[in-house]
Design a protein that fits this description.
single chain, mainly alpha
């Protein structure tokens, strides 16, 4: 019994297997790329939503920190007002010792 090996007989089956493996690899890469594109699009939508939220919060902070609004709130809710002329003292008056009242 002699074994007759012909290299040409194995070429076609091996080539078919290699082509099939490569085709499966290309399809997998294509599917992975599509999934990555979907993921990127979702992340971009999320970033845009966060930016909109940050802009809204910045506008709210600007409104809340408005000095006129804070002054009106202090007057209305706390009965506070800026110091009047009669409440202010000169530097000399502050430096002089106060007289004790009996």
């Amino acid at each position: 019994m002699t074994f007759n090996f012909k290299p040409g007989r194995l070429f076609v089956p091996v080539a078919v297997v290699v082509i099939l493996v490569m085709a499966v690899g290309v399809l997998k890469a294509k599917n992975d790329a599509a999934a990555t594109r979907r993921n990127i699009a979702e992340l971009e939508r999320e970033v845009a939503a966060r930016r909109d939220e940050a802009r809204g919060l910045a506008a709210e902070v600007q409104y809340l920190e408005n000095p006129k609004r804070i002054e009106a709130l202090a007057r209305r809710e706390l009965g506070m007002a800026p110091a009047g002329r009669e409440q202010k003292k000169s530097i000399d008056a502050l430096a002089a010792p106060e007289k004790a009242t009996p």
